[in-house]
Amino acid sequence: AADLRTAAAPGRPTFEVHVVDVGTGLGVFVSGPDFGLVYDAGSNDDTALEENNRFTAYLRAEEPDRKSLQHVLLSHPHRDHVELLADVVLDYQVEHVWEPGVVNPICGYRRFLEAISQRPEIAYHTAAFDAGEHTVDFEKEVCNLSATVSVTHASRAQENVAIELGWKASMRLLHVDGEKHADFNRSSLVTLLELDGVKVLLMGDAEAGSGELDKPPTPRSIEGRLLDRYRSEIDADVLVVGHHGSTTSSHRAFLDAVTPEISIISSGPVKYHSVRLPEPAVVKALADVSRVYQTTVGEDDAACLTNAAKIGPDSDRNPGGCDNVVVDIRGGKPAARYAREAD
After folding, report:
1. What pTM value is reported for the model?
2. Taking Cα atoms as reference points, which of 279, 215, 221 lies closest to residue 252?
3. Other beta carbons within 10 Å of 333
4. Beta-carbon contacts of residue 337 (< 8 Å; ≥ 6 apart)
5. CA-based, 20 to 30 A from 101: which of 1, 154, 224, 287?
6. Is omega for the bond preceding 100 within 30 degrees of 0, making it cis?
7. CA dihedral 115, 118, 123, 126 (to 10 degrees)
8. What is the residue-averaged pLDDT of the chain?
């Protein structure tokens, strides 16, 4: 697939940004002519693993010849962002892993760290501790794995440092926080990609400090810090929306700085507290400034449960696999589409 993209645009690289329909969660795959990158892979409902892992099934369907990934990033260790990610590390030759390093004693995060520990060739970058060998203590056995896992090849993740991805492609981590917060959303690893001049902003579950869209983000919130420190940098073409379209994120002052051309919401049927995301007010705010795409459209999640032709396991009573969103970047311009093919 990379060779085909290079041939299609001689003299200019082309890229694809895939926001994969993983049910209630987030999983992003970025493909360039000379690199592959994954940002999150988790779900609260579509959680089958190994050969039935929806996210890795999508990668295999899109690029069956791919053997390696240059970068794997975890925004934060909530289940809907990490549950499917260990299989990515185990199935591919991964060069770099980036994560905040805050410890959540759940199976998905424990499996993720275990997978990294088994691959000493991986350059592991974390915000939580410095270079060298570290023992992460979960304080109890998790997922039939011991309470501790040793990571022998760690280095410190740095904020706002240009990281070369490949031909005319780079990334920066605009929010790096390894402190232990009661809410792991506050540790979200916000990442800015620049792909042949097109900026793609990946927000994880970064929030604004309140649930009122018309209020400016609070100074200590992630959106507030981004506005204060990186206002010009976050002026992006593509926004992968924070916190699945909750009013805790995407406040109007923040969107006014980002001015996205394309906004993508990844969500599903599982409620967060009493709310099913995305919230209509957020969809409207995004539609006021951009074209909005969603991994759940109308009642498609209900129809998806028994769909006999979707990515990954078919007719499996899970909502994922139907409404994937792809941004094609050609000639330095982004164009979004839905990818509703089967494997």
Report:
1. 0.96
2. 215
3. 12
4. 325, 326, 328
5. 224
6. no
7. 50
8. 94
